[in-house]
């Protein structure tokens, strides 16, 4: 039990350290490039009209008002186009990621069930 708690705390400390390290590295890279306070790669800001403004690598994209009527025929057409244009490697990668996520959840449930 004690070893399990120590391992959990170690993993938590490592994750927090990685997060802090990535943030510090990004700040230092911006400082070295002379771009302190530069916008990040993706910035999302709400506007006063109720819309959302998204800046991706410096290019601004504004959302439009949502459609009042949904055309199901167009939605189905676009969905089939997306399915047909999907790369098989991307599908395999997504399935592997989902499998790893599921295994990790089951392992965590087993560990915490065992710890109780």
From TrEMBL:
InterPro entries cross-referenced by the UniProt entry: Uncharacterised_YqxA (IPR020534)
Alphabetized Pfam families for the sequence: DUF3679
Protein name as it appears in the record: DUF3679 domain-containing protein
Origin species: Laceyella putida
Lineage: Bacteria, Bacillati, Bacillota, Bacilli, Bacillales
């Amino acid at each position: 039990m004690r070893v399990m708690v120590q391992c959990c705390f170690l993993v938590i400390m490592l994750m927090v350290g990685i997060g802090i390290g990535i943030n510090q590295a990004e700040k230092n890279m911006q400082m070295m490039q002379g771009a302190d306070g530069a916008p990040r790669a993706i910035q999302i800001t709400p506007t006063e009209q109720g819309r959302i403004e998204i800046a991706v690598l410096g290019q601004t994209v504004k959302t439009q008002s949502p459609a009042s009527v949904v055309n199901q025929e167009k939605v189905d057409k676009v969905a089939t186009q997306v399915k047909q244009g999907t790369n098989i490697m991307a599908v395999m990668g997504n399935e592997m990621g989902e499998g790893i996520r599921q295994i990790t959840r089951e392992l965590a449930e087993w560990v915490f069930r065992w710890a109780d």
